[in-house]
From TrEMBL:
Protein name per the record: Release factor glutamine methyltransferase
Organism ancestry: Bacteria, Bacillati, Bacillota, Bacilli, Bacillales
Catalytic activity: L-glutaminyl-[peptide chain release factor] + S-adenosyl-L-methionine = N(5)-methyl-L-glutaminyl-[peptide chain release factor] + S-adenosyl-L-homocysteine + H(+)
Coiled-coil residues: none
Occurrences of domain Methyltransferase small (ranges): 100-201
Single GO term (MF): peptide chain release factor N(5)-glutamine methyltransferase activity
InterPro entries with a match to the protein in the record: DNA_methylase_N6_adenine_CS (IPR002052), HemK-like (IPR004556), N5-glutamine_MTase (IPR050320), PrmC_N (IPR040758), RF_methyltr_PrmC (IPR019874), SAM-dependent_MTases_sf (IPR029063), Small_mtfrase_dom (IPR007848)
UniProt family annotation: Belongs to the protein N5-glutamine methyltransferase family. PrmC subfamily.
Species, as recorded: Tepidibacillus decaturensis
Described purpose of this protein according to its UniProt entry: Methylates the class 1 translation termination release factors RF1/PrfA and RF2/PrfB on the glutamine residue of the universally conserved GGQ motif.
């Protein structure tokens, strides 16, 4: 490559990504270059007119090649911001998304209405990168936060994030709430962003998702509701009263999941005081929070 400034290298990388139909090409080129040098935005623009080092060309081209082959940007740079904090991510875990931040905002608000500043015990089912559990532990340091995942590789990533972000979280390996049941633990709050894509719809996902993110964290069974059923089946045995159950859900799943909750209400020793269905930033029902008494 001929001698270029940082600015010119950014322009070239943007053009390359745009030619390969990558959305938000200038932003993605910026993120790649900043991560290449471990710079923030201010540092990038301070170096804007400096020469682009020759030794950085090959790593940049390798990253660009990965991106045009639909490797997610977050996996390339190994990080995704969530709730204002940097989480390490890799193909063993889902990339945390803004909708899950919304889940946490509403969950914390609902919990504060019940318990104010009292310490409570929380379990995050299917932790992945640890984004939910670690954020709750940091936002609510007097809460006792537990989390479960069936994937040892995901737990390794989550534990790494907990150490990096100095969060106090207890990790359990196992299937859904089984480790909590086996330990005879009781919790005040169950939260989960489980796999919810119906199996038949997996092939329709974007290549960045279906070819890279872990299928274990995507496939929600025949109708996408498999894990909601299982979690609700187990919840009665682990949930204190009053308690909260909070889910992130997929498109068109709010009505069937509300029905599942109402069916449980008629069979449980628990009673559901109210169920809230909350839309995401596009107005799609995305969060369900049920108060149990």
């Amino acid at each position: 490559m001929r001698n270029m400034t940082i600015k010119e290298a950014h322009s070239w990388a943007s053009s390359f990504l745009r030619q390969h139909h990558i959305d938000q090409a200038p932003l993605e080129a910026e993120v790649l270059i900043r991560n290449l040098f471990q710079w923030n935005r201010s540092q990038l623009f301070l170096q804007w007119n400096q020469p682009f080092p020759i030794e950085k060309w090959e790593p940049l081209k390798q990253w660009l090649d990965q991106r045009i082959h639909h490797i997610p940007l977050q996996y390339i740079v190994g990080e995704q911001e969530f709730y204002g904090r940097p989480f390490s991510v890799n193909p063993n875990v889902l990339i945390p998304r803004p909708e899950t931040e919304l889940l946490l905002e509403h969950l914390i608000h609902e919990a504060d209405q019940i318990w104010q500043d009292q310490p409570i015990t929380v379990v995050d089912v299917g932790t992945g990168s640890g984004a939910i559990a670690i954020t709750l532990a940091l936002e609510k340091p007097n809460w006792h936060v537990h989390t479960v995942d069936i994937s040892n590789a995901a737990l390794k990533t989550a534990k790494k994030n907990a150490i990096k972000l100095e969060a106090q979280v207890t990790f359990h390996h196992g299937d859904l709430l089984n480790p909590i049941l086996e330990s005879k633990m009781k919790v005040d709050l169950i939260v989960s962003n489980p796999p919810y894509i119906p199996t038949k719809d997996l092939d329709d996902l974007m290549p960045e998702v279906k070819n890279n993110e872990p299928m274990l964290a995507l496939d929600g069974g025949e109708d996408g509701l498999q894990f909601y059923r299982q979690i609700l089946q187990q919840a009665e045995k682990v949930l204190h009263r009053p308690g909260l159950i909070a889910f992130e859900i997929g498109i068109d799943q709010s009505e069937p999941i509300v029905e599942l909750l109402q069916q449980k209400d008629s069979k449980w020793k628990l009673q559901i005081e109210h169920i809230k269905v909350i839309p995401d930033f596009q107005g799609i029902p995305r969060i369900i929070i049920a108060k149990i008494t």
